[in-house]
Write a structure and sequence with these properties.
The chain is α+β, with helices and mostly antiparallel strands. It has four helices and eleven strands. The chain starts with a helix and ends with a helix.
């Protein structure tokens, strides 16, 4: 009788374990479906994009991450992943909990102007037995933005202004001012050379005047 009772208890515990494993699932959701940046972005500027909210829609505590992804054969230009910064980039969520992720984009000085598209993706981070990270499911917000054309000097100017706003300490601002003054002096020198070259009138050689 004791053996039968022990066997029944073991079978019940085993069934309960398999049931909990079968019903446990990993899930992810995102609170924003589409982000359209109305302002044309300038080369050299760091922008704060609207944040994204990632949800744990599963039934177990899971580690999540944020990344930039693309769609196949998209007509828009592809922004580089290195342009984007997520804060936090990785985090752990219990079931039914959410995390707001701040998103920044750093437009390079040299960039192709035009319309860009990318997915801002949230996904569970699953580490396999071999130590590799696997992404089985994901949720994403569509990001649309346009980069305005600008020359290199404009890009440097916008980068200095962006850094001025980004870093508050006065020591950093002083270095930015010095860099801005150098850029202005270089631009002024180039403009003076161009104006002086345009102001010179062409004269015929003496031999040509005598021939006339």
């Amino acid at each position: 009788m004791k053996r039968i009772l022990t066997g029944l208890l073991f079978f019940t515990a085993l069934v309960g374990t398999f049931a909990s494993l079968s019903f446990a699932k990993v899930g992810v959701g995102i609170g924003t479906g589409k982000i359209i940046v109305d302002e044309k972005l300038k080369p050299g500027v760091i922008y704060n994009l609207p944040p994204i909210t990632i949800f744990n829609t599963g039934t177990e505590t899971t580690k999540y991450g944020a990344s930039v992804e693309y769609r196949q054969a998209q007509p828009e230009l592809l922004p580089e992943r290195e342009w984007f910064t997520f804060e936090p980039a990785e985090f752990t969520l219990e079931p039914e909990n959410a995390q707001t992720v701040a998103v920044k984009i750093n437009i390079p000085l040299k960039v192709i102007p035009g319309d860009y598209f990318a997915y801002l993706e949230g996904h569970p981070i699953v580490v396999t037995e071999s130590g590799l990270t696997a992404v089985n499911i994901a949720a994403a917000a569509k990001l649309y933005f346009t980069i305005a054309p600008a020359n290199v000097f404009q890009g440097i100017y916008y980068r200095l202004i962006s850094l001025w706003k980004e870093f508050e300490p006065w020591s950093t601002r002083i270095s930015v001012v010095i860099g801005l003054v150098i850029i202005i002096l270089v631009l002024k020198k180039n403009l003076n050379i161009e104006v002086s070259s345009k102001g010179k009138k062409k004269t015929k050689p003496i031999s040509s005047l005598m021939d006339d």
